[in-house]
DNA sequence: TTGTAAGCGTTATCAG
DNA sequence: CTGATAACGCTTACAA
C-alpha cells in the first residue's frame, strides 16, 4: 500500500519527479530515473490507477453491450474488441443485457458516471424496445443495420440475404420457407427484406405462411422447422436468418425423415465455427466478425480521443460459403448448375 | 459535468448532506432529501464514480481471466459470472488471455493497481506456464482441478472421465483411443487420469499409441482422429476430453467411411449446446457451467468483502448424458446392456 | 531538470 | 440532523 510519496522519500526526490518518471520519462534525468526505479523496486510500489484515472478524468475502459455473450458470433466480435482494447490500453467491461432494457440502462449509467469512456453496441438499436443513448456518450455500433443512426460498422444484411435466396432460386427452388428472428429485431428485418426482394425479382409471390418467427436460438429453429414439415405443400428450401436456427431446423428435418439437402435445402447466416461441422455442413453467409469488432473499437477510440472520424458508417464485405446443405430442388430442371455467386458487397 | 458542489449550492445545503442523501439516505431529513433530489434533477447531476471509487479505495470491478472467450463452455460460465456481478453491483472486466502469460500479467497488474478488486480464474493454474498470482490478491478459480491451490470451484474431472470410460468398457470396448488436451493442461491431465484408472481397473493395459494430443479445438479433434483411422488395429471407441474435439473427430471418421457409433463410438466432455445437435448427437459429461460461475463469484465477493469463507474448495456434481454417439463395440458380446450409470460425485 | 503546491470530486471526521 | 474541512494519491502549472 505504498504511495508515490514513499517512493519519493526513498529516492530522495519530489513526488512530481516520481510522477514524471512514470508518465513522461523523457523529462527526467537519467540519474533521477535510476533512483526512482530503485526506490519503486524497494518499496514495492504499484501506482494507484484509481487515483490516476480520477485525476485525469478518464477510466480507460469501455463497455460492450451484447445481447448474449454465449452466442458464438458475438463472442468472436468481443474477442476482437478485447484484443484491440488491450493493445490500446483500454479495459473491456462486459455488458450482457440478456435483452432487458433495465440491464442495458445499468450499463449506460456506467459510462454516464465516468466508469467507462465509451460504449460499443453489438446489437442494432431499435428505439421501441431499447433505451436511447444520451447524445453526449461516445458510442459505436459494431453490428449495425440499415437504419442504424450514429457511427457504425455493419454488413449489407439485405444484400447478403438476397444473395442467398438468389442462389436457392437458381437451384430451382420456388417455395422457400424463411425462419426469421424476432419481428422487431433489426437484423431479422434487414435480412427478411433481402429475402422478399429476391422473391419479387424472380416473380415469386411472397407467402406469409412460409415464414416462421424464431429468436435466433437452435431451439427455436428446431420448432420452426416442424411448421414446414407438416404443410400440405411444403417448401423445398429453408432460408434461416442465422446459423443456430438452421442447425436446429436440420435436426428437425432429419428426425422427420426429410433428407437434407436431397429433399430440402437449408441455409444459415453468420458462418459460426460449428457450421462447418454439422451434418450436412451448412451453406451460409460469412460475416467478418473479427474485422467488425476491431474496426468498431478503432472508431470508438477515435471518438473518445477526440480525433475526427474519417467515415462514420463502415460497410464490410461478406462471403457466401456454399457447403453441403443446399442442392437443386427435387425434380427441378436446371439449365446449368451455377458455379459462382457474387458475394454481397 | 456538474459536481456535488453544484447540487449543494442549488439545494441550499452542504456537500456533506448531498453525499449522505446519496449513500446513507436514512441519516438525512426528509426535507433535505427532497431539496437534494430536486437539485440533482435540475442540474442533471451524475455522481462521478471515478472520484467515489478513488475515495473509497474500491473499484467495484473484478477481472475474469479466461483462456478463450469464444469457447462456448467458458462463455456460459462468464455469463453466469456477469449476471451475479451485476446483481451485486460489480463490473466484469474481460481478460481474454489467449493463453499467453504476457496478457495474463497485464490483467493481474490491473488488480494490483486497484483497477479491480479481485480476480476470477477460468483456467486451472499451472505454475510452469503461468504467472503466479501475488498472495495479496483476492482470487478464486471457477474451473479448478485436483491440485488447484487456493479457493476454487470445480468438478471431479478424474471421476467424471472414469465414468465415461467405464461406460465405454461396459459396452464391450477394449481398445479405446483418447484425444487429450495439451500435455500440461491441468484439465486434460485430470481427465486422462480417469481414463487410465478405468482401464487399469478393468485390466486393460494402457497403450500410449492410443492417445492423441489435441488442444481443445475442433480442428485438433479432426486431425487427431486421422491418427486412429489409419491404424492397423484401430480402436472401437474414442474418449475425447472435450466436446469440440469430439465433434471434429466425428467429422473425420465420417469422411473416412467409418460409421459413428456402429463402427466407432465417440464421447465428449462439457455438454456444450451443440453436442445435442451434432449427427449423431454426442454422449458427453455435462458440467454445471452456470452454477460454477455463480458460486465462484459469490466466493470471490466474500473474500473481497472480508467475510469468512465457509468452504474453500467446492466440488460440484456432473451429469453423464448418454446420446447417440456411443454403441456396443462391433462384435462384442454383452451380458446385458447397461441401463444406468452412476454420475460422478 | 526539479520542487512546491494547488487542485480533481468524493467521503469521513468532527463539531455544532 | 447538518456543515465545515481534511483527507484520498496523483497530475500539472508554475517557479526555481
Give a short synopsis of this structure.
Chains A, B: GO terms for molecular function: DNA-binding transcription factor activity; transcription cis-regulatory region binding. The structure is a homodimer of 345-residue chains. The first copy, chain A, is built from eleven helices and twelve strands.
Q: How would you summarize the topology of this molecule?
A:
Two copies of one chain form a homodimer.
Chain A: H1 4-11, H2 15-23, H3 30-43, H4 49-56, E1 61-66, H5 72-87, E2 91-96, H6 101-112, E3 118-121, E4 139-141, E5 152-155, H7 157-170, E6 176-180, H8 186-201, E7 211-213, H9 218-229, E8 237-240, H10 243-255, E9 265-267, E10 284-286, H11 289-305, E11 313-316, E12 319-321
Parallel strand pairs in A: 1-2, 1-3, 3-4, 5-11, 6-7, 6-8, 8-9
Antiparallel strand pairs in A: 10-12
The structure holds a DNA duplex (16 and 16 nucleotides).
Walk me through what this model shows:
Chains A, B: It comes from Marinimicrobium koreense. Chains A, B: GO terms for molecular function: DNA-binding transcription factor activity; transcription cis-regulatory region binding. 2 copies of one chain form a homodimer. With 345 residues, chain A is α/β, with parallel strands linked by helices. Chain A has helices at 4-11, 15-23, 30-43, 49-56, 72-87, 101-112, 157-170, 186-201, 218-229, 243-255, 289-305, and strands at residues 61-66, 91-96, 118-121, 139-141, 152-155, 176-180, 211-213, 237-240, 265-267, 284-286, 313-316, 319-321. The first copy, chain A, has 3 domains: 4-47, 434 Repressor (Amino-terminal Domain); 59-155 and 289-316, Response regulator (Rossmann fold), CATH 3.40.50; 157-287, Response regulator (Rossmann fold). In chain A, the strands form 4 sheets. The first copy, chain A, has a 4-stranded parallel sheet, sandwiched between helices. Chain A has a 4-stranded parallel sheet with strand order 7-6-8-9, with helices on both faces. The mean pLDDT of chain A is 92. Chain A binds a DNA duplex (16 and 16 nucleotides) through helix 2 and helix 4.
Amino acid at each position: 500500500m505504498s504511495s508515490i510519496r514513499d517512493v519519493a522519500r526513498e529516492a530522495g526526490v519530489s513526488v512530481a519527479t516520481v510522477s514524471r518518471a512514470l508518465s513522461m520519462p523523457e523529462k527526467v534525468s537519467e540519474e533521477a530515473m535510476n533512483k526512482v526505479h530503485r526506490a519503486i523496486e524497494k518499496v514495492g510500489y504499484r501506482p494507484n490507477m484509481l487515483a490516476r484515472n480520477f485525476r485525469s478524468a478518464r477510466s480507460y475502459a469501455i463497455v460492450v453491450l451484447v445481447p448474449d455473450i454465449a452466442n458464438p458470433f458475438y463472442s468472436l466480435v468481443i474477442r476482437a474488441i478485447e484484443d484491440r482494447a488491450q493493445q490500446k490500453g483500454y479495459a473491456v467491461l462486459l455488458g450482457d443485457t440478456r435483452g432487458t432494457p433495465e440491464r442495458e440502462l445499468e450499463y449506460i449509467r456506467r459510462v454516464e458516471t465516468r466508469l467507462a469512456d465509451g460504449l460499443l453496441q453489438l446489437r442494432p438499436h431499435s428505439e421501441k424496445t431499447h433505451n436511447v443513448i444520451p447524445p453526449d456518450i461516445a458510442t459505436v455500433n459494431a453490428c449495425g443495420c440499415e437504419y442504424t443512426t450514429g457511427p457504425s460498422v455493419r454488413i449489407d444484411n439485405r444484400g447478403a440475404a438476397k444473395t442467398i435466396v438468389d442462389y436457392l432460386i437458381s437451384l430451382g427452388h420456388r417455395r422457400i420457407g424463411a425462419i426469421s428472428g424476432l419481428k422487431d429485431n433489426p437484423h431479422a428485418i434487414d435480412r427478411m427484406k433481402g429475402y422478399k426482394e429476391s422473391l419479387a425479382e424472380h416473380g415469386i409471390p411472397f407467402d406469409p405462411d412460409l415464414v416462421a418467427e424464431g429468436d435466433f436460438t437452435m431451439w427455436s429453429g428446431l420448432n420452426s422447422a416442424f411448421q414446414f414439415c407438416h404443410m400440405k405443400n411444403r417448401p423445398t428450401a429453408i432460408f434461416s436468418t442465422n446459423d443456430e436456427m438452421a442447425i436446429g431446423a436440420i435436426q428437425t428435418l432429419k428426425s422427420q425423415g426429410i433428407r437434407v439437402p436431397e429433399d430440402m435445402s437449408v441455409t444459415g447466416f453468420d458462418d459460426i465455427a460449428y457450421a462447418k461441422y454439422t451434418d450436412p455442413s451448412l451453406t451460409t453467409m460469412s460475416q467478418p466478425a473479427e474485422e467488425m469488432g476491431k474496426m468498431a473499437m478503432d472508431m470508438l477510440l477515435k471518438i473518445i480521443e477526440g480525433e475526427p472520424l474519417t467515415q462514420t458508417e463502415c460497410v464490410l464485405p461478406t462471403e457466401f460459403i456454399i457447403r453441403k446443405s443446399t442442392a437443386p430442388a427435387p425434380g427441378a430442371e436446371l439449365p446449368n448448375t451455377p458455379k459462382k455467386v457474387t458475394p454481397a458487397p
